[in-house]
Every structure is written in C-alpha cells, then in structure tokens.
Amino acid sequence: MEVRSCCSLTSTETEKTEGQVSRRNFLHGTGALTAAGLLAAGSTNIAHAASPPGCSVWQKPTDADFHEVTRGRDKPEVIDHILAVLENEVVPKTMRGVKAGNKLFGAAVLDKHDLSTVIAETNAETGNPLMHGEVTAIFAFYDLPKDKRPAPQDTLFIATHEPCPLCLSSITWGGFDNFFYLFTYEDSRDAYGIPHDIVMLDEIFRDPEGSYSEKNKFWSSWGIRDLIATLPADEQPPFTKRVEALRVTYAEMSDIYQKAKAAGKGADVPLK
Q1: What DSSP string runs through the chain?
Q2: For position 93, what pLDDT does the model report?
Q3: Whole-prediction pTM value?
Q4: What domains are defined for the chain?
Q5: Of 57-61, 180-184, 211-215, which range is least confident?
C-alpha cells in the first residue's frame, strides 16, 4: 500500500487537508479509514509547515511482505513467539537494567529458521548513552563468532518500543530487513515519560508526528498491536491480555526509572 506523505504537500494541497487524518494516526488506530491519495475523512487537523520538505511516498507493508519476512508463518504464531520472548527473556534483563539506572527499552534478535532467540538485550546507557536497547542487541549480535550467528537478513529484529532515530539507523546499518515493536513513540512519551524520539524527529527532520516509511528499500516494520488488530476478533483477546500485562510491567519499570531519575540516581546521560 502506498499513501502520499503529508510532508510532501504543496501549500495549495495543504489547504485541502483540513479535517483529514495523518498517516501516523491511520496506522495507530483512529478507525477503519480508506487510504486513497492522502488519508480520507476524520476530524484531526494537521498543522503543516509553510514550506514543507519534499518527501517520497511512504509505504505500509502488506500481508505478503509479512509472510516473506517470517518465512511463511501465520501471524498468530509470530505474535505469540514475540510476546513470549519479551515476557520471558527481555523483561527480566530490563528489570535488572532499570534497577541499575538504565531506561526500560529492550530488544531481541530471532532466527527466522526456527524463531529461536539469538540475542536478547536491554538498554545499557549507564555505560554509554548510545547503548540503547536495540544498539546493545546489535553489538551483542555482532560480537558472536561469524560462524555462530545467522546473517542479519535471516533474523527477525524485535524492539520493545518503536525505535528512535538512532536505532532506526542502527537497524539499517546492521543489515536487518525487518523489525517489530510493541509500544509506540506516543507510549514512550505519554506513558513512560521519555519524549525524546518524537522531539528529535520534529526538531531534526521536521516531522512532529514521528512518521517514517514502514516499508522501504532497507526494511519492513510492524507494530505488534497493529498485527493483533488484523486478526479475527475471536483470536485477539488472549494476545490483548498479554499486551496489557506487559504494559503493566513496563509501567512498574518506568516508575522505578523515573523515581531514580528524580532522585538524581539515574544514568549520567544528556537526555534522561
């Protein structure tokens, strides 16, 4: 699916978008809308720059892309396995990391062949502010002996939270052709008190909504909750219940992190 990026509008076209919803709001659940040209119908007004930067069309991965990336697996199998890796492997490491003053972001790399875990890691910024969960996982992946690790394009990359600009680039430079994430930029900002992702995308790329092409020449990406929403209604509740439990767990870890930060005991990093 292709839809024109809001940032590619001319000033004349901008005047015609009053009342339309953004690409990002479309992807994250404003309703069952039809994408045709720009996203049609809705009540959200979008503020555009007077001279918006030129942007190519953005793309959303298809079911065919999903099956290609996952080697033909069904969505329920993939969702179930990703949630299990987060629950049983990433969360315990992240809890220990948060108690040591690190942020609550984690990541894992799975082998596409059998979905076995290659690496599960968490944020390690107390040692270096660049060691985000995704970056830590990529470093650990490439620290494995070459003959002991799969090629990056033969893996699934899992992030607990939607990757920030640093991590989007790291995933790309690392050679991974996909990533999946559980929580969005908005969750990081609103639920966990860490707004830097959207702020950076706004300040540096002039994209206040945190938009990017979910399908591009380097990778395709999926939100886990978006995938769950595409399942038949009777298959969604067990997954939704697990996501909610993870949300509660991450809220607890966020509380630990935020209290340490407020007490001046968090990591000594520029962006807290």
Answers
A1: -EE--GGG--HHHHHTTTTPPPHHHHHTTS-S--EESEEP--S------SSPPP-PPEE---HHHHHHHTTT--HHHHHHHHHHHIIIIIHHHHHHHHHTT--S-EEEEEETTT--EEEEEE--TTT-TT--HHHHHHHHHHHS-GGGS--GGGEEEEEEE---HHHHHHHHHTT--EEEEEE-HHHHHHTTS--HHHHHHHHHH--TT----SB-SS-EEEEHHHHHHTS-GGGHHHHHHHHHHHHHHHHHHHHHHHHHHHTT-S---S--
A2: 97
A3: 0.81
A4: 1-60 (no CATH), 62-262 (3.40.140.10)
A5: 57-61
